[in-house]
């Protein structure tokens, strides 16, 4: 950088954050709440699915049941690590949509699985999506929310998780018993429905503000080779 030049930062690209409209605030609140619901539902899913999978013959040993129970956590760890890297290349909204798409893909594979191997792959993918969304959804809400509502909107994610746990128990109770083979497929498929809603809501949030521009895009806009200096809110 030559002497006298102002460093290119998010603040030079946009001097002050735009006014957040009430519709955007409502969308952010819904994203936070429903995203938490999806995470809570999927985290508890196996409590009702494993007895049904056992009855259907998809799993036949305690080793398979234990491996399936651990798959979400292992996938979530991978997803969390992946999210930290994706945040340098994709916008916040794109990361949320990618994570939710991963959850929907995993749920579809799980629900349609004829064997334990496919069930396991689907569950791992769900975990990866949950890990990505567990970081990216509170992030996008906190960055887009006005300061006086930021804490409330982010906390709705935790509220949604508690709601999701209880919704699962209600749905599991309402479904037919484990002897009905198709019931576990419906239970698993329902885990994808909140993810689809979150994608639609995320598309309603702004995409032009500086906090939804990937650092790589800022670098290219500034003409820099590899890095872009960030404003204090981004450090």
Number of domains: 1
The whole-angstrom Rg is 20 Å
CA-based shape:
elongated
Structural class: mainly alpha
Biggest sheet layout: none
Report the strand count. 0
Strand percentage, roughly?
Answer: under 5%
Which stretches of 5+ consecutive residues score pLDDT under 50? 5-15, 225-235
CATH topology, anyone?
A: Growth Hormone, Chain: A
**CATH A-level architecture:** Up-down Bundle
Level-1 CATH class name: Mainly Alpha
CATH superfamily: MFS general substrate transporter like domains
Task: Give the N-terminus to C-terminus distance in angstroms.
Answer: 20 Å
Helix percentage range: 55-70%
H/E element sequence? HHHHHHHHH
Please outline the helices and strands.
Blueprint: H1 10-13, H2 22-56, H3 62-86, H4 92-111, H5 116-144, H6 150-174, H7 183-190, H8 193-202, H9 215-222
Helix pairs in contact: 2-5, 2-6, 2-7, 2-8, 3-5, 4-5, 4-7, 4-8, 5-6
Give a short synopsis of this structure.
The protein is mainly α and 235 residues long. It is 70% helix and 0% strand.
Give your account of this protein's structure.
- The chain is an all-alpha fold and 235 residues long.
- The chain has a single domain (21-210), classed as MFS general substrate transporter like domains (Growth Hormone, Chain: A).
- Helices cover 70% and strands 0% of the residues.
- It has helices spanning 10-13, 22-56, 62-86, 92-111, 116-144, 150-174, 183-190, 193-202, 215-222.
- Helix 2 packs antiparallel against helix 7 (183-190), helix 2 (22-56) packs antiparallel against helix 8 and helix 4 runs antiparallel to helix 5 (116-144).
- It is elongated, with a radius of gyration of 20 Å.
- Belongs to the major facilitator superfamily. Sugar transporter (TC 2.A.1.1) family.
- Its main location: membrane.
- Keywords: Membrane, Transmembrane, Transmembrane helix.
- It is a multi-pass membrane protein.
- The chain crosses the membrane at residues 25-43, 63-83, 95-114, 120-140, 152-170, 182-204.
